[in-house]
Amino acid sequence: VIISLKLELYYLILNLALDEKLTLLNDHWLIMKQANDIRTENLLLTQSCADTYGSQDHDLSTFLNNMEKQLSQIRPRSASREHIEREKEKYNELVNEFDSQQIKFQELLQQHSSHLLTLIASNPEESQEIQQSLNELEQEWNNIQTNFRTCQQELNQAMIESAEFNSKLERVSTWFDDTSFPTTIQDNDEFERIRTFKEHLDCKYLDIINLKQDYSDIEQHKQNDERDMEEHEKTNLIEEQLMNIDSKWSQLNGRIQEQ
């Protein structure tokens, strides 16, 4: 009986020890499983954030490259006011398109990148790569902003130059339209009238030279663009007007030489 009791006690103690070990093993397994689940969740979250950042970074970089290309195609300088107005419309459209991406850029700069850098803080190499790409994107963005400001200044200056040129052209053209050679009258004032007329004609010759130079200075800054046929027609009209003024001056000057 005593031996039987001892055996029962032994097995009871053994079972308790086994139960305790099993409990400890189960607890340890749960802890490991929980840690593994957290690690897996962090990896998935990191991958998701990296994908989101990479996609938006690529989209914004592509957008900025396209924006820079379109902005470089704006040709501010022209003798034609209509041309400059069309270029200003293109500029305003690009400004609106650029501004529409401002929220997306700020989200990437302040939220997505910050979250991703926090998740990969334990990986200095990846963190450095992300930070470098972020700095490059921010630099691209700032460069485009600078290019927009420069383009706006050029458009404003072009409008001033165009207005001044066309005003001078109109004044000279009107003068020749309203002017004729003095009527020949055999009196003592005939020579004086012709002399005064020649002085005015010489002044207009200087005006014509200045107009041609202004026109040349403006047009030589324009890029060749075969698509802009309307603009080419506008410049042809101005060139014809300059040639017409030049021809009228030559006719009047020839009359003076005949006297």
Explained architecture:
With 259 residues, the chain is mainly α. The protein contains 6 helices and no strands. The protein has helices at residues 2-72, 81-100, 102-119, 124-177, 190-219, 229-258. The chain is rod-shaped, with a radius of gyration of 41 Å. Mean pLDDT is 83; it is low at 223-227.
Write the layout of secondary structure elements.
Layout: H1 2-72, H2 81-100, H3 102-119, H4 124-177, H5 190-219, H6 229-258
Helix pairs in contact: 1-3, 1-4, 2-4, 4-5, 4-6, 5-6
* Residues in β-strands, percent: under 5%
Assign an overall shape. rod-shaped
Which segments are poorly predicted (pLDDT under 50) over 5 or more consecutive residues?
Answer: 223-227
> If you average the pLDDT, what whole number results?
83
Radius of gyration: 41 Å
Q: State the secondary-structure class.
A: mainly alpha
Q: Order of SSEs, N→C?
A: HHHHHH
End-to-end distance: 161 Å
Notable traits:
mainly alpha, rod-shaped
Compact summary:
With 259 residues, this protein is mainly α.
